Amino acid sequence: MVPCAIGSAAQERSHDASTQWYLDPRPQTVNVQKSPMSNSLPLALLTISLGLVSTVTPALAQIPAFPDAEGGGAAAVGGRGGQVIEVTSLGDDGPGTLREALLTPGPRIIVFRVGGTIELESAIWISGEPYSYVTIAGQTAPGGGVLVSGQKSPESGIMFNNAHDIVIRYLRGRKGYNSNQQLQTGDPIVLADGVYNAIVDHCSVSWTSDQNMSVWSSSNPAHDITFQWNLFGEPLSSHPTSIIVGSGTNTEGMLDIDIHHNLFITPGHRLPNFKGKRGRIINNLAYNWGWRATGFSGGVVADVIGNIYIKGPATMAQSTITEVLWRMGGDGQSGGPLGDPSIYIAGNTGHTNADPAADNWHMIAECTGWTPTNNPMNPSYRRNAPLDGGAFPITVHSATNLEELLREECGAYRQLNGDGSWVDNRDAVDGRLIEECRTRSGGQLPVTEDDVGGFPVIPSGSPYPDTDHDGMADEWETAHDLDPNDPTDGNQDADLDGYTNVEEFLNGLEANPDNTPPTVVATATPTAGMAPLSVQFSADASDEDGQIVSYSWHFGDGAESTEKDPAHTFVQVQDYEVTVTVTDNEDATAAAVISVSVTDDAAGGNGGAGPPDGSQDQSGCGCGTHHTNSQWSLGILVLIALGLRRSRASWAL
């Protein structure tokens, strides 16, 4: 199965796949014949016999939705290869709105040309196969980003039903109080019947009247879903919950629903309430919950790994119970899956366990209904090894060092610049919640958003120039040898890594990301001698894909120079470490260090090891040329290029 583009007429074509691009992610059946010139993956001839075909891509290994996507929903294709739709209006409905973009059939990548608050007056209900394959790229919004408010709506916000391959990133969803709110509605994002291959990443959600987010199926179970790096905060007190995973009729098919690296700040409970069949709860932080924290039901198969539970001012007295609860259920429906549970729990910290390395089994208790108890969990329900990580396993961090990372990187905290770099842009609500978590402060659950300051002002800003409206900034296209006037090059894959060019931009690939750092060789003559010692330095630097733009010498005695080949006189008697740093036109650097030894007259200058000018010993002693470690070698050192580049750090244990 190879993704192909949909054309306008039936035809058969052969393509050199090494030069073709992703255009449509939907799988089509093709006849693949390897080129006789190739014994490896990138080059293949693909003969395609379809009713509607134009261009194809090489058969690449499966890639995640974006490079940092992990867990069950990481394989989501999103709108890869589809049309780019611009949101140009903050209105609820009509041309240029988010609603119109979401309700446009076919693969699509939604970018924002306006920042501010979108006030929904009713739910956006995206239902059916034609509306699959969608990416919402909130990181493209200018100004303060984009916030979707549901204050004017008595319903939930963005709802997906029987759709798949959904990518939602850097979106703020703040429901807000509505006196006419319908019962059990008010979730800013809902993944309902039949949703699969969906990932919600770096979103900020608060002031909800049901859950912050939910995965709930009535008939066709949802599966393969990831919630990662989100900030879930302050659901309203009428129904203050964060995430529920379950089904009214069939929980057995709710598989690989993973919730990892999220912040839960001042929620009531459901962190999450998990009634699906299989999932992973990894590296989340829950602070200041009200009643209970994480709950499971029925024959769930789950991992609970490396989470942090911190009580706060809103935590009720009965929450002295364990951090994790399991209740009998197992009706295969709303009570959770059939059978006995299988739970792996390790590496967590909380009020019942301060040491993540300690046995965690006492952190989970069995209860009747949701009545808080500390009844010991049946040890037969314990699993001694985690689940298989799947195609895109979740990176697990130690709970010991996790909190600062989550506070810094969860939520819709940044946006894209026109050069592909990231810029921080947290709004006031997230900033307050994170500070409350850091200082262990905060209060009770709000009745309305006005109790905690109300909706923030989101500046509109100015979008990055995009002449051809292909989703990529002109500046970024120019830096990557693309054409800012060609609207078709966004769906090409210039480096053949499986991500289209517009995806590379959306993923935060900066200008010239593959810049090779420079190299530098430094010399000094002499490197040893009596004070005052005058030394001539020289730097021989090169850069294979750019040019050297600066030299910076630090002589170790407080003196500096920006010359390429400076001279310097050392007065004090001591050993010096002299450093030269060179920088290229892409801000990559390399450095070299030379040791210089300055002695006094009483020490015999260079100690008799050789002439102070650094030349070889020609004394005729018959013992050949003598060298010391530093006194009269030329001190040549080729430095390790530091290659400093601005990019999101890769975190690991």
Molecular structure report:
The protein is mainly β. The chain has 4 domains: 2-50, no CATH class; 83-409, Pectate Lyase C-like (3 Solenoid); 465-510, no CATH class; 519-638, Immunoglobulin-like, CATH 2.60.40. It is 6% helix and 30% strand. The chain contains 5 helices and 44 strands. The strands form 8 sheets. Strands 6-7-10-13-16-19-22-25-28-31 form a 10-stranded parallel sheet. The longest helix is centred in the middle third of the chain and has 12 residues, at 428-439. The radius of gyration is 30 Å and the shape is globular. Mean pLDDT is 79; it is low at 1-59 and 602-653.
The CATH architecture of the largest domain: 3 Solenoid
Sheet with the most strands: spatial strand order: 6-7-10-13-16-19-22-25-28-31
Q: What's the mean pLDDT score?
A: 79
Rounded Rg? 30 Å
Biggest pleated-sheet summary: 10 strands, parallel
Strand segment tally: 44
Shape: globular
Tell me roughly what share of residues is in helical segments. Answer: under 10%
Task: Describe, in short, the structure shown.
The protein is mainly beta and 653 residues long.
Main attributes of the structure:
single chain; 653 residues; mainly beta; Pectate Lyase C-like; 4 domains; ten-stranded parallel beta sheet; ten-stranded mixed beta sheet; 5 helices; 44 strands; 6% helix; globular
List the helices and strands and how they pair.
Elements: E1 2-3, E2 11-16, E3 27-28, E4 31-33, E5 45-50, E6 83-87, H1 98-102, E7 108-112, E8 116-119, E9 124-127, E10 134-137, E11 146-149, E12 158-161, E13 164-169, E14 172-174, E15 189-191, E16 196-201, E17 204-206, E18 213-217, E19 223-228, E20 231-233, E21 243-247, E22 257-260, E23 263-265, E24 273-274, E25 278-282, E26 285-287, E27 294-297, E28 301-305, E29 308-310, E30 324-327, E31 342-346, E32 364-367, E33 375-376, H2 402-409, E34 414-416, E35 422-424, H3 428-439, H4 474-479, H5 501-506, E36 519-525, E37 528-530, E38 533-542, E39 548-554, E40 560-561, E41 567-570, E42 575-584, E43 589-599, E44 637-638
Parallel strand pairs: 6-7, 7-10, 8-11, 9-12, 10-13, 11-14, 12-15, 13-16, 14-17, 15-18, 16-19, 17-20, 18-21, 19-22, 20-23, 21-24, 22-25, 23-26, 24-27, 25-28, 26-29, 27-30, 28-31, 30-32, 37-43
Antiparallel strand pairs: 1-3, 2-5, 4-5, 32-33, 34-35, 36-38, 36-44, 38-41, 39-40, 39-42, 42-43
